[in-house]
């Protein structure tokens, strides 16, 4: 199996046409032969991660993987140089030296049916899940569904803490409301709070919201889990899809926690 087959497989469920204009999903670092010409080698193993870091690349090399598949792009902004002054530059150089290709499925996966927000919905047991904001091309933003059994807002916060392993959740003040219809968006999803309200959601769950963005959630119970916490299961989502498509391939999940922040309680 060649690397290009893996790229093509990912794009069957997370097509690049779904990505946002500002994004850079797809192949980030390719493979090259001894004469620095692009090549398409056989897959020796793929390591799936949320973020590409130097530690993740060391893990990939140690596991004999020549492909890293991430959710967040390593190269979100163009590099002006390769001097090794930033961790992104060092990652590119190390990947090239070690013969490791890097592919990222970012908003292409965010906007796909069964993608990041849908995985969040599955984890908390939502039913009748659909796009919060559907698009004509078959993609969409966020997800919305209903709980099997309604619960009070504080009990729902406890459910979120348990499912996502969160010690502390930012939320609007509890008012004793009943939660049944839930809207979600992984990562930085505050821009969808208005759509959640318009869809009749009782609450809106996302990864991160700014201080003033909480003022825009009038009529909603809003919960902010943390960016990493909301998207941590994306590794499982990607690896399970690829395992099913290529049962004989070495598809590994990174053991590196790339969460750059911690809470102190």
- On the 0 to 100 scale, the average pLDDT is 95
**Quaternary state of the chains:** single chain
- The strand line-up of the biggest sheet is 7-8-10-11-12-9
Q: Could you describe the largest sheet, including whether it forms a barrel? A: 6 strands, mixed
Spatial shape = elongated
What is the CA-based Rg, rounded?
A: 19 Å
How would you describe this protein?
- With 265 residues, the chain is α/β, with parallel strands linked by helices.
- Helices cover 30% and strands 24% of the residues.
- A six-stranded mixed sheet has the order 7-8-10-11-12-9.
- Strand 2 and strand 3 (38-39) form a beta hairpin.
- The chain is elongated.
- It starts with a helix and ends in a 12-residue tail after the last strand.
